[in-house]
Design goal:
Length: 238
């Protein structure tokens, strides 16, 4: 059985998530005989990223991340995609059966991923984000050409009608200005919750067919994590 995993964004959340998935996949049962993890990001690691992102050297985030993990987890084939995801390349990156982890910091890219997954027969999109000490993780699943959970755009207006830009539409200075403050611990929390979803997808057939959790909300200050079902009704299935 092949696992086709795509991590979009190797910043604060993505750089924390990739080694978690790598370690877990390295020791999965032999039934998973081909495990591919593609990491996509057009940005570079720089000195200013160090307080909140995990990396061993400066350079393109996708290349640096996959380079390190290939050595540590040889069973997993890590593939760099050193570009921002755009309408022109999204179909090259994400195909049928993919489990996509969206670790980006803009709603325009989230909408692009959401809409693309909505064109596939079978795929899962796990989106994570945070506002310094709180955040959420959303699950959008397609099975047999139908939605089994609500899409990101169906639930969140800010994703359906984004007011921001994708990084491929901005210059370096504009991208730097658009970057919001991040807390390392919150990034780790998002990555951990995304890993929870991945664990359920690979161990629980019922959850894999129709995820019972459509969204997690967490608040570090309040000390809580709340799961919410986002099942698509018959009327909302396509």
């Amino acid at each position: 059985m092949k696992l086709d995993i795509v991590i979009v964004g190797a910043g604060g959340v993505g750089s924390a998530l990739a080694p978690m998935l790598g370690r877990y996949c390295q020791y999965l049962p032999p039934v998973f005989d081909e495990i591919v993890v593609t990491v996509a990001d057009g940005d570079n690691y720089e000195e200013g990223n160090a307080p909140r992102q995990l990396f061993g050297r400066f350079g393109n985030k996708a290349e640096v991340t996959t380079e390190a993990l290939l050595e540590e987890f040889p069973r997993v084939r890590f593939v760099p995609f050193p570009e921002y995801v755009t309408p022109d390349n999204v179909d090259m990156l994400i195909g049928e059966g993919a489990i996509v982890f969206s670790a980006v910091d803009n709603h325009t890219t989230r909408k692009l991923l959401d809409k693309h997954v909505g064109t596939l027969q079978d795929a899962t999109l796990v989106n994570g984000g945070n506002d310094y000490t709180d955040g959420n993780v959303q699950v959008y699943a397609r099975r047999g050409g139908r939605d089994t959970t609500l899409s990101l755009c169906q639930v969140h207006e800010e994703t359906a009608n984004p007011a921001d830009k994708s990084p491929h539409e901005m210059g370096c200075e504009e991208r730097a200005r658009a970057s919001a403050p991040q807390l390392f611990f919150a990034n780790q929390t998002v990555a951990t919750l995304m890993s929870w979803v991945f664990y359920l997808l690979t161990t629980d057939d019922t959850f894999a067919r129709r995820p019972s959790i459509g969204e997690f909300y967490f608040d570090m200050v309040a000390g809580r994590v709340n799961p919410i079902a986002r099942n698509a009704s018959a009327e909302e299935k396509e």
